[in-house]
Write a structure and sequence with these properties.
Strand order of the largest sheet: 3-2-1-4-5-6-7-11
Mean pLDDT: 96
Pfam family, one: Formyl_trans_N
Enzyme class: transferase
CATH architecture of the largest domain: 3-Layer(aba) Sandwich
Order of helices and strands: EHEHEHEHEHEEHEEEE
EC number: 2.1.2.2
CATH superfamily of the largest domain: Formyl transferase, N-terminal domain
Protein name: Phosphoribosylglycinamide formyltransferase
Structural class: alpha/beta
CATH topology of the largest domain: Rossmann fold
Helix content: 25-40%
Family: Belongs to the GART family.
Length: 216
């Protein structure tokens, strides 16, 4: 097994993707280790998930800081105390400053509930239905200064059903999020995944613009 890969997870809410990562890493056949979970909200249920798993859980309230730059500077200091190899955004509802993104370039992953580059931002399921899309899904990508615009690592594609609602679509997409995020973290921890000059690389080969596609 490769050397340990220290992971810090950032959350703002329930932490379902965090739980998927915790459950996956319990198998013990990956070098990834979640060193800490940090939330900008004290009421985030994901903090309880972390504590239940014996993972240090911390709160850094963004409202206590004068602006995004000050908060992100403090967040960097807090994260770096855990010497992370990888920082994972799991429902962290903050727009990050360019300084933060550059600090963790190549070791910052996010998951987004759409088939990027379609539907950056919010309300992705509603927008997919309104557009009449035949397919929808979710994407793991490296974070860059462009919102939801970094190189794609892996996408899960699901068919849109005739009777889908935003809620039913979200539920099915969540299932896929919980599959592909642990997969991407495993790849990174095993040093199979990296961000190269030409974008995301897996096993030394450039990934396609869509990332690795998984169809269900």
């Amino acid at each position: 097994m490769s050397a340990p890969c220290n992971v810090v997870v950032l959350i703002s809410g329930s932490g379902s993707n965090l739980q998927a990562l915790i459950d996956d890493l319990r198998a013990g056949d990956t070098p990834a280790r979640i060193q800490a979970v940090i939330s900008n909200r004290a009421d985030a249920y994901g903090l309880e998930r972390a504590r239940a798993a014996g993972i240090p859980a911390e709160v850094l309230d963004h409202k206590a800081f004068d602006g995004r730059e000050a908060f992100d500077a403090a967040l960097i200091e807090r994260i770096d105390g855990y010497r992370p190899d990888l920082v994972v955004l799991a429902g962290f509802m903050r727009i990050l400053t360019p300084t933060f993104v550059r600090h963790y370039q190549g070791r910052l992953l996010n998951i987004h509930p759409s088939l990027l580059p379609r539907y950056k931002g919010l309300h992705t399921h509603q927008r997919a239905l309104e557009a009449g899309d035949a397919e929808h899904g979710c994407s793991v990508h490296f974070v860059t200064e462009e919102l939801d615009g970094g190189p794609l690592v892996v996408q899960a594609v699901i068919p849109v059903q005739a009777d889908d609602t935003p809620e039913s679509l979200a539920k099915r997409v969540h299932v896929q999020e919980h599959r592909i995020y642990p997969l991407a973290v495993r790849w990174f921890a095993a040093r199979r995944l990296q961000l190269g000059e030409r974008g995301a690389m897996l096993d030394g080969q450039p990934l396609p613009a869509t990332g690795h596609l998984i169809r269900t």
